[in-house]
Structures are given as C-alpha cells and as structure tokens.
Amino acid sequence: MDVESVKLLAAALAIGLGALGPGVGIGVLGAAAMNAIGRNPEARGAILTNMILAIAFAEAIAIYALIVAFLLLFVA
What we know:
Blueprint: H1 3-39, H2 44-74
Helix pairs in contact: 1-2
C-alpha cells in the first residue's frame, strides 16, 4: 500500500466511525424525547430545549471527526 491509499483509508475510517456514534446517539435521544413528551405533554418546552442542546453536542462530535478526516487528507 502506498501513502495515498493509507491516507484515504484513514480519512474514510475517521469520518465513518466518527459519524456512526453521534448518528446512533441522536436517534436514541430523539426517541427518548418523544417518549417523554408522550408521557408528560406539559413539559414539552423543557424537553425540546434539552433535546436540541444534546443533539447539538452530539453533532459537534461528528463535526470534529469531519475536521480530522480533512486534516488526514490534506495535511498528513
């Protein structure tokens, strides 16, 4: 394997695995929030606010993985 192949493989693994966790986490978070709203509709505002905040934190992890993949492609 040459260096370019290894760089491409590393970048693909970085974004692939780096986006897998947040994707699953956001799905679980959304399902749990909808379940909580179904059980307690009066708390909808607080639940949605916390859900959106948690989704933003999970999405930030995927963005970090994307940055690492770009760094592997263009800098390394």
